[in-house]
Design brief:
Blueprint: H1 2-14, H2 18-25, H3 41-45, H4 50-74, H5 79-92, H6 105-115, H7 117-134, H8 137-154, H9 158-174, H10 176-184
Helix pairs in contact: 1-4, 1-5, 2-4, 4-5, 4-6, 5-6, 5-9, 6-7, 6-9, 7-8, 8-9
Amino acid sequence: MILLQALLLGYLLGTIPFGLFFAWISGAGDVRKIGSGNIGATNVLRTGKKWAAAATLLCDGAKGAAAVLLARTLLPPGAELIAAAAVVLGHMFPLWLRFKGGKGVATFLGVCFALYWPVGLMVAATWIGAACIWRISSLSALIAIALSSAYFMLFHLEASAGLALALSLLIYWMHRDNIRRLLQGTEPRIGKKSSAAT
């Protein structure tokens, strides 16, 4: 029952499609028909609506943190790890959108902050630093995500490190098209507008 409660709590929070909502109210239309077609903050930014992208980033991160904090408060110890995995899965595969959601980076970042805030800061700093250097959102995210498990290990948080590693592999799989474009040198840079889904 505890496992089910943690799964439902995390998954249902994860399925809230903030990117779809903020893109729509900004007048950009259906973000699923723009750029990469996913509902994450990076794709919302491709609409040119910076405030909508920022709001999506914050809210997608907040739902990741909320899943962990609520599970930690309401359920027995360890449930927060299950809720953390479920919220990322809910963001990636929302039932309401035919299991086609975002790629999980912002939600994962929120999870890191809630599990142990110093690790969240380290992951965020890595992401921002890489973005400032290369100006490619997917590359910055992949670098930060790849290091997240090691950051947890620095603080001897083995269970969180194991979760981070599993979610990192899933996030890398969700970015397989981005990785291919990075290797080809065709991945778009931050802020580039798109008018149609690729």
